[in-house]
Design brief:
The structure is a single chain. It is built from 2 helices and 8 strands, in the order ββββββββαα. The chain is α+β, with helices and mostly antiparallel strands. It has 2 domains: about 80 residues, F0F1 ATP synthase delta/epsilon subunit, N-terminal (ATP Synthase, domain 1), CATH 2.60.15.10; about 40 residues, ATP synthase delta/epsilon subunit, C-terminal domain (Single alpha-helices involved in coiled-coils or other helix-helix interfaces, Up-down Bundle).
């Protein structure tokens, strides 16, 4: 499918540390608490909460994947702004570090030890899973 000129919109992805991306795209698919949400040119205005997951966008027919951790996405007037706690392009992800983080979080969740902060362990596992999925790895539980 070829998109015609003028069917793009501005996508900005910002974290507390840096502007990760700022350019025109053809579409974006972002992880929300209600599931993945797609945005295209002339999308209805919306503000949504993001969860940890893989954010994908298409630019000039090429798809880019990145791991995001929490935040918000504001869409209006052919502009989408993602304010994320963290965002990493797939090629920036250290796979062995993400796999180690996943295994540590899983061990904490399965330990059933007193004093384990299960919400924190689950959040760490979600972030690690997002990183692994952004590079195309789906670890077994």
């Amino acid at each position: 499918m070829t998109l015609t000129l003028g069917r793009t919109f501005r996508l900005e992805i910002v974290t507390p540390e840096r502007t990760v991306f700022d350019d025109s795209v053809e579409m974006v698919i972002a992880p929300t608490y209600q599931g993945y949400m797609g945005v295209a040119h002339n999308h209805t205005p919306i503000l949504t909460v993001l969860t940890s997951g893989v954010l994908r966008f298409r630019q000039e027919g090429e798809e880019t994947r990145m791991a995001v951790s929490g935040g918000f996405m504001d869409v209006r007037m052919n502009r989408a702004v993602v304010l994320a706690e963290a965002a990493e392009f797939a090629d920036e992800i250290d796979v062995s570090r993400a796999m180690s983080a996943y295994r540590r979080a899983l061990a904490r969740l399965l330990s059933r030890r007193e004093g384990v902060d299960y919400r924190r362990a689950q959040a760490a596992m979600d972030r690690a899973l997002a990183r692994l999925k952004a590079v195309g790895i789906s670890p077994r539980k």
